[in-house]
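Protein 1 of 2
SEQ + STRUCT:
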Amino acid sequence: MDYNEARAKAKELVSKMTAEEKMSQLVYNAPAIERLGINEYNWWNEALHGVARAGTATVFPQAIALAASFSPETVKKCADVISTEARAKYNKSVEYNDRDIFKGLTFWSPNINIFRDPRWGRGHETYGEDPFLTSVIGKAFIEGIQGDGEFLKASACSKHYAVHSGPEKLRHGFNAEAGKKDMEETYLPAFEKTVEAGVTGVMGAYSAVNGVPACANEALIKDKLRGDWGFKGYFVSDCGAISDIYENHKYVETAREAAAAALNAGCDLNCGECYAHLNEAYEEDLTGDEEITKAAENLFTIRYMLGEFEENRPYSDIGFEKVDCREHRQLNLEAAMQTAVLIKNEAGFLPLDKEKVKSIGVVGPNALSITGLEGNYEGKASEYITPADGIRRVFDKSEIRVSPGCKYDRNVFNSWDGHDNIISDGVAVASISDVTVLCLGLDWRLEGEDGDKESITLPEVQIKLAEAVCEENENTVVIIMAGSSVDIGEKVRSKAKAIIYGWYPGSQGGLALAKILAGEKAPSGRLPITVYYGDIELPEFTDYSMKGRTYRFIETEPLWPFGFGLSYSSVKYNKAEITLSDPKTVKVKVSVLNTGNYDITEKIQVYAHYDDTRCVTPNYQLCAIKPIEINAGETVEAELKIDRYWLKAVTENGERKDPDSGITLYIGSTQPDNRSRELGAPEGIKISLD
């Protein structure tokens, strides 16, 4: 059902409601209106990397890991599976008359905020630090969730509009101040592009933006989102954010004033309790029939588009046997293999020869950890394969020895029940193993919605373990399982033979990592973030200026650059040419030769560089990506399409303009910075765009 038809039906239904009934529907746990045949509906559901908080589901790699695939096609396939499982679960929930929280089809995902600061605890919920990558991965996720059928398969929601990226502890009363240039260049593009992609929901942030709470910000909601961008879906508050308007922001004095301020600004749905005061606001003429009616119509338009009121409900033939089924686990495995980023591979140490490695020690707090696979906003998979489990399966002729070696972050002596100070146990395993795989990193307790990171250096106890293991066993591979910038220390970086960023790789992640170690799949992931040295002096966390932040404006050398990633094969970028250049689009054709011995998935990246006398411009701006399969010795030609939106300079007053100098395009495996070359990235090709 298209938007216009659904809107007409919603208008007709809402016209039959009283003002009180309309207001009752503007909360996330909307009650039934039996006289109109309306069932209760709970709008709150989560699907960051799988159907979350609702029992069994495929647990895909965390969002930041999906971004590391640099493959919109892979992300769209994963999101399509998520919505399939969502329908399967919804069908059974309706059958059993279970309409509780996390049972509906309106998913408050994806999180498309920009990961501007490596300390932000929720950064791993995002698609990284770059607005272009966030836009294209977000678009793919939304298309997979919503489907292309007559009805929405499920509803996606871009959040948190706008700007929010920490600090988490301050978010309920924080005022994020961002200039017009940073807003238009960094914080808003992903929202604009996902609106263009047809996202049906947008969630407002907790914080204020330039002095006005995000969920009562008319300039953001009415003028920009619905006005300039033409958004037609529903707008929902973050949970409790409308109460923050009076309790923490002190923007108004009472709950009824806060409810009216949000509704009048265009916030249709309240996740929280504050809209319980809409009746008071209505009686005092703080808001009116027009605002209440419009909000209800926006919400019921979505419910009609989902097919809720159809006699033959769409997608009702999707059975529960689809939930975390074998087919979905296979896609999960393939996705996880695409997300791993090979950072270091000294003298081609990897892959390991399964026939020759007699023993492998798997050491570290993530060796057997399920939380290290899951990330957050997760479902519960029917099967988890940790790194130790995966290595046992793949290296089935090798002796596999396992020790956690230490806790995630507690450097303590053994307590009466043991299992605390066990570094010597991990080192002992390393001492009798041909190869040691060190599974280090974090989990949601150290970076998440509950708090930001205090340091971007790996916890001291893990560094202590890693240094001791590397001293004991020179054949050590480090796997970093985390969702953000983590420095493992110079000694470990220099002594480890290979380093892999494994992220929170999902329920099949351990098997994916093992297959990469064995060379059954060549790594192809790329960093969607800049990894900084642990002792870097970062800008103030509360400063939302982009100066000195991310690869686009960094002023120092990174540890590992955005876009970087190695493979088991080598490639050579040969000729590149512009095949089309018009006011909206540039098309570039490039030829890539696989000069190595492994079949690979190459992740082509195009960066733009331009100067403009009117404003500060990015060091580089990613503007196109394309994964291509290249067999050993094969040459593949690929064409990439560049939207000129990403080739514009953004002036200090927030206007996108053609640069007043030439534009240079760089096509290659990574960005064209010196650090990527030092780390072994192949040379790309430079062409000028007239």
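Protein 2 of 2
SEQ + STRUCT:
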Amino acid sequence: MQHQQQQTPPRMRQRRRSSGVTLTPGVLTTAISIGVVVLIVAITFVADWMRIPELSLSAQGQFVSPNGDGSYDIFTVSYRLADSARITARVYSDQNVVRTLANGQNESAGEHFLVWDGRNDVGAVAPDGFYRIEVVAAGTMRSTSQSAQAQLDTQPPTVQLANLPEGVSVNTPNLQIEGVTEPGAMISLNGTAQPQRVDNIGRFTFPFKLVDGANSIDLQAIDPAGNTTRLQRTIQLVTEPPDISITRPLENEWTNQQIVSIEGVTRPGATLTVNQQSVRVEADGSFRHELILDQGANALHFVATDEVGNIAVLDRVVHLKVGALPIQVNVQDGAVIGDANLQLTGKVEPGSLVTVNGMAVPVNAFGDFQTTTALNSGDNTITIEARDLAGNVTTLARRVTYQQGGGDSLERLSRNLENLPILILPSILAIGAILAFTYLRQNRVSLALSVDPPTFVPGLPGSEKNLVILLDLSKTARLSLEVLDQNGNLRASLVQNRRKIGRRHIFHWNGYDDRGMLLPAGDYTVRAEAGAPPLQVTSSVQVRLERPLQPQVQTPAYTGRTTVSNTRQDR
């Protein structure tokens, strides 16, 4: 071993002598350790410089509506950091900064959140629209960012209703509420627990049952941002027809004026006709209308229709009589009377008021009157005045002479007997005329006939395709209804001498004759006859019958007469 050390090369020995330092194993190990530490620190520093912070962001909801109603008043953004970082958060509208929520604040690793109240940096509420909330996490040299979109909506949804203004009145209880609002909104009616979502273009429909009188409708629409609109309506259900009150003329009033003034009151806002003439109705419902009368009985037919279509009908009769019948008495002009108490008898038109020398005299139902008139000695004038129901006045004067014991009783009796036929015959004629007039007036019936449509295309037997026949009957009477061809021949008998009450009747005819055969195309007459001789009245209307587009098989539709239906049961 010693021999080997002694054999060290001369060059090695020379190098050691020249350095003057001896490297022991411990020193070398320390140097290596320090070098490794320095290298690790350098690598760590560079890695920290080049690190990109890990950031994940999420938003709660989509809307912000800063109106203080507790719904979407703030917009919350949650984010998570894997390591600590400096956080900057801003709200942008396009590229413009609206609000700075955080500016380089240090945040540790973990969960964090930010809120935006919809306001800008000066505290004012930002305009409605879409905004971008961007969160930037910055490390030593590098950073990362994520963003969420928020829609700021402060405007409540508009609600529009179709055909439902405030205070509208209707006459049917089944109401369909229809309208439009903002798409995506929810709408409720009268505080229903389950709101209804509108369709994709914002339309909604609610069925609603009205009750008589005022009905309140309260609609509430809530848009996706929680903004609320409330719309209220009051709807009147009116099912009662309007009243018609006629103050003049009175029922069965008599007049001698050819123009009668009609006065009365009905429901404000209603339309009124009398004998199909339009009558002006004032704002308070009162009306006044003048109508020209015909001699005799005049039927006044009033029809009032309110704003919702309810109809009221009133009939009244007014009699026009121009001129009065003459007065008949049992004393001739210039007669000589031997009795101081004259027994005066006479006849006037029934219903008249009679005065004799200014004193009222009773008149019986046949127009007869009698009274005792005291005569003065010598010449006397007896003035008789009669005023009939229409107001016509007739005056008759008789000049008689009173002579005590004057005039032969037998002669006076003979003269009175001679006048008897003159008094009796007109009385009988007048009574007969009055009775006939009263009978005809009380039993008068009127009817009106119409069809819908005026041109009718029949269907197949049993298809229930019918012509609608409307018949208005003024009072209960015997009725016949039939269909005649152009030659006046009976083709279909719909009603045969049936008793019908006075009101509107609805009949149906299918276009077939009494044998169940389809009638040829052409013009036909639907004729109605009501009453009994001699008080029968008729009404007719034309209808055009056309062939169906498809050929019909001539097969009897039924056995017997043409089917007739009436919407109400006869009573």
